[in-house]
What does this fold into?
Amino acid sequence: MSIPTILFSTTQNFNPGDEVILMGIERLLNASGIRYHKRVYDRNPSNQQQRAEALADHNTPPPDYVIFAGTPEWCSEYPNLDDLIKGPYSARFFARILRLRQTDRSNDPLLRYIIKHGISCAMLGVGSSKPPVPTHKIDYILRELSDLFIVRDPQTYRCFSSYQPQLAPCPALFCAEVAEPRQSLKKIGITLQAPHSNLIRMNKQGFDYAISSYRAITQHYNNVEIICHTRQDSHYFQHQFPDAVINTLTDGPSLINTYSRFDAILSTRLHGCVAACSLGIPTFQLWHGLRMSTLEQIPVVNNKGRESALTWLQGLDINKQSTKIVQSNREAMEAYLEALTPLKQRLMGT
It folds into this structure.
């Protein structure tokens, strides 16, 4: 059997969190023994030309398979007349459609392409803090063309319950090649994001809690560094804390390389928490917005304000917690590999 071509719907050079999802999925495919040629449908808002070329029939034949790699735009599309008549649609829904048109982040062309060519696909670790009403294209794909529908958060699971999704950790949990238990607490990383971040906006309560945690920790520990997932965040905190050591991420590999240098991570970023756990690093969740419900499937400490970040650090048995995380990751991967059986059967004919 020839090696199949897989088209991955992802986002490149825009949000490193999206890239570590794809890194985790590729590690899962490799661990499953699935061989494939890789193509990318890049949802970066500035890369419209790449998306058009990825779906141009005159350039290359259609891929053998499509994998939606985790990010919220996996089900973005424009409604058709039947959708509008059947409803129910609110003002928020139409506002969302307008936003998608403005930012050009919709997967609608890809959904149409999949249906046109009857391409089998899988949704791996998809989710959203505000799951949309399933419209006609995604309904057809989920019912007729999908081998796997794995969601990463409870709200998406509930929204799409009629499609019988599986609830499992975000695949970014498998993004690191090596996860090693930490032996001692030498260096602490705190991932912060500015209140005006163009990706995810924190509420004031969450931002104030994260900043107060950072201040408290730096009063008791010397080797503490800030991690920023965007240059915008980095510029903000360079102004706020001019004496701080600030690490700025550029892509998925830089995220893994940066996080790997720390022994404990406290993070306001969803995929900062997930990537840290992938490395076996004890992790404390600093923000509790709805989107962070994804972490209910990940071995992250989430006390929802009942325990301060400083108290957690001071009571941390780092080797015990780190060893527990590494074992939990192994068990999660084994479960995922079992879930990938239909995908492997489709691609490998076994």
About this structure: The chain is about 40% helix and 15% strand.
